Amino acid sequence: MTHVTPAPGKRPDRLTRSERKDLTRGSLMQAALQLIGEGRSFSSLGIREIAREAGMVPNAFYRHFRNSDELGLALVEEMGITLRRLLREARQSNVATSDMVRQSVQVYYEYVKQHRLQFLFISSERSGGSRILRLAIRNDVIHFTNEMALDFRRLGIYPDMPTSSLQMVCGLVVTTMLAAAPEILDLPPDQPLLEKEMTENFVHQLQVVLLGASCWKEKTSRPA
């Protein structure tokens, strides 16, 4: 997750008002994630507890968020923007479709590992917790799906497939990626063979989805 940090050599008391505000906001978001990393569910976290973890008084929380749901929405938005950008860059490289799948998997795999706490939060809130956050995550999935469908169109992947069908295929890809996150998080550290096996399995799952989409496209395009 990207948070504002003082520039090298820049004293904290020389930060602009905007920089201090962003730094405090980021500290509150990170505090919530740290508590989640200790095994807590986001819905169980109190505002006082989050503020205390961030080393602040409770009133400081309300200068940045109206309630804990608003903090959760900020976490969903920040991770979604960053991950969509990384995957969009992976798809825009001039490589074959099979290599694009592998490259996207590698980008996603590394991002999940480096942002473990954020994915613990997303995995938990996607199926439980606050309805507001569930809907926000669902909307983010739709953004992922639509962006991927647009890129597929641009790259000439399934050029004759109707837009609704193409979005369905991309939705299956995104769902497969989300389902893989808990397995990545549960992988023991320093296990290169297991990591390679999991990565290959992940690549194969996505390749099966894309291959199946190609066969399904051909079948449905035939006259009755």
Describe this structure in words.
By secondary structure, the chain is mainly α. It contains 9 helices and no strands. It has helices at residues 17-37, 47-53, 58-61, 68-92, 97-114, 116-127, 131-155, 163-186, 192-221. Helix 6 (116-127) crosses helix 7. It is elongated. The termini are far apart.
Keywords:
single chain; 224 residues; mainly alpha; 9 helices; elongated; disordered N terminus
- Helix and strand succession? HHHHHHHHH
Radius of gyration, in Å, reads: 20 Å
Cα(first) to Cα(last) distance is 51 Å
Tally the beta strands.
0
Tertiary shape:
elongated
The structure class reads: mainly alpha
Largest sheet: none
Helix content: over 70%
Strand content: under 5%
Low-confidence stretches: 1-9
Count the DSSP helices: 9
If you average the pLDDT, what whole number results? 86
What does the secondary structure layout of this molecule look like, with pairings?
Elements lengths: L16 H21 L9 H7 L4 H4 L6 H25 L4 H18 L1 H12 L3 H25 L7 H24 L5 H30 L3
Helix pairs in contact: 1-6, 4-5, 4-7, 5-8, 5-9, 6-7, 6-8, 7-8, 8-9
